[in-house]
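Re-run with default settings, no changes from the original entry. Doing this only to confirm the output is reproducible before filing.
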Amino acid sequence: MNFNLNQLVRKNIKELNPYSSARQESVASEVKIFLDANENSFGSPLASEYNRYPDPLQKEVKEVLSKIKHTNASNIFIGNGSDEIIDLLIRIFCVPGEDKILVCPPTYGMYEVCSKINDIGVQKINLTADFQLDIPQILNSINEKTKLIFICSPNNPTGNIMAKNDLLQLLQNFNGLVIIDEAYINFSQQKSMISELELYANLVVLQTLSKAWGLASLRLGLGYGSAELISIMNKVKPPYNIGGSAQSLALEALQNIAQVNEWIVNTTTERTRMANDLKKLSLVEKVYPSDANFLLVKFKDAEKIYHALMAKKIAVRNRSKETLCDNCLRITIGTPGENDLVIDSILELEKMIPEYNKFKNQ
């Protein structure tokens, strides 16, 4: 397949003259007195550096990430959460009222939400019964109006990883962008698709610092793609989309890989224990395999379990209305103590329902 990124870009984006910020026009290391950005020269009530605009391209953070991810800094985009990256990709490549994206429910809902906000059509090809990609149906459904395919792997809300051969088949047979959202990849033994970037110009990989890295409040989404793609995204994004404090805190956090790896081990260990404990409960019909930091659990009556847990001030996510997720709750893996409370709460409900006790003892 002869993929041409430039042909995929919307005409108005190609012709766009991007806003040029003060910090892009002056090299900070060569400047002693900043009188170019109408900042408060007297300082800030918080800290002296906060009166200055941040690096618009987050160069220091990207350099550190490039070493961790074994890729070039020019292949990295940092967004205000992955949601900003999803929205940017749709706005860059999809013409409102004409083009479409393709998604595979059940999946992360923001792909569709961002598309509808931008007046972009959404093609839906459901996952198979075992939550894998229906490759024949996808390939039969794409047409000249299909510009982007969004695949979540490990998938939210099901938790499973998508078969790598299926992902490669899409990349090899689709003349548009295939976006692999790897928000939960740190909790999986499968290798990231970042390693395939040099082979596939139409591949985009999304990751985040919100999950394994524990920085959800900072809103730092990561996009990996060709240098050409990243350059276009930098052209379209807001000038200062990542604040200086977020960049500083990210740099500090990225020095603590050992701590993050320890949390990942703890989470996956608890995931296995939690799955085994849930399978023993009579109210549980199925615990789906997971490569993420959560479990999708099918209950006999998910609504009742959901409200029983909420009554004990335990919040889980009711996914029962999602495609293929009837009577399912998504339960994030918590600390050992938090997980014990979930199990104990469900056990307590079992004891209140005689028919379930009868079923359990058969």
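The CA atoms of residues 131 and 158 lie 7 Å apart. The chain is about 40% helix and 15% strand.
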